Backbone:
């Protein structure tokens, strides 16, 4: 089955700086890579996703890059704001469901 | 278009009782996934269902846990004879098909006392 590794587990950045979270996956057949943001006491919310036929996708301050050869993908958040503080999960999907990374706790320091 | 609805939001059960968690997928979604999340941990896959079929239950404990997604009505995750270790947040997600966007509900937080 698929195995997704996510790093770092905790990331602290100054407000206004950029944050990068990285994930690797094991199953070369995986073709869909979403990112979720989970705030305390809430369910995960889909914030951006990328498919295997695309190398990069951007939506305002967030972007995701995918390197299929190396089997890794990354989330980039620029100009971080206090409301970006949350736990972020990457995931990979081939056919049956999503396999998640263990999550990154992003802390935005004022 | 209502999102994924889970109920109850909070559930308290005594050891040995049964817990029934319900999930209504988004309109037009026929695929449902259940995940378990322990405090400070990630999302662990439990089971993947389509209408009236269990597609993948590789993440489900072999005993006491079962899931269904009937032709009519919500998906149900049932935990029989609950133990303290079952205390967790249980999340349901739905998607329109394989490899499609999956949207999560707000979860059911089960506490076993």
Residues:
């Amino acid at each position: 089955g698929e195995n997704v590794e996510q790093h770092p587990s905790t990331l602290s950045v100054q407000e206004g700086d950029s944050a990068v979270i990285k994930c690797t996956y094991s199953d070369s057949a995986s073709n869909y890579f979403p990112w979720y943001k989970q705030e305390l006491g809430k369910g995960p919310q889909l914030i951006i996703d990328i498919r295997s036929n695309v190398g990069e996708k951007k939506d305002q301050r967030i972007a995701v890059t995918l390197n299929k050869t190396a089997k890794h993908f990354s989330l980039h958040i620029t100009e971080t704001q206090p409301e970006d503080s949350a736990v972020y999960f990457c995931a990979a999907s081939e056919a049956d469901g999503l396999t998640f990374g263990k999550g990154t706790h992003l802390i935005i320091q004022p | 278009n209502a999102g994924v609805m889970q109920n109850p939001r909070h559930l308290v059960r005594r050891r040995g009782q049964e817990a029934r968690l319900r999930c209504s997928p988004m309109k037009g979604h026929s695929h449902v996934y259940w995940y378990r999340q322990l405090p400070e941990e990630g999302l662990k896959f439990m089971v993947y269902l389509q209408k009236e079929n269990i597609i993948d239950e590789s993440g489900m404990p072999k005993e006491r846990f079962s899931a269904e997604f009937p032709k009519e009505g919500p998906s149900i995750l049932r935990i029989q004879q609950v133990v303290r270790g079952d205390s967790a947040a249980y999340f349901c997600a739905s998607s329109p098909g394989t490899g499609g966007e999956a949207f999560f509900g707000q979860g059911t937080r089960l506490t076993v006392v």
Notes: The radius of gyration of chain B is 13 Å. Chain B has a mean pLDDT of 93.
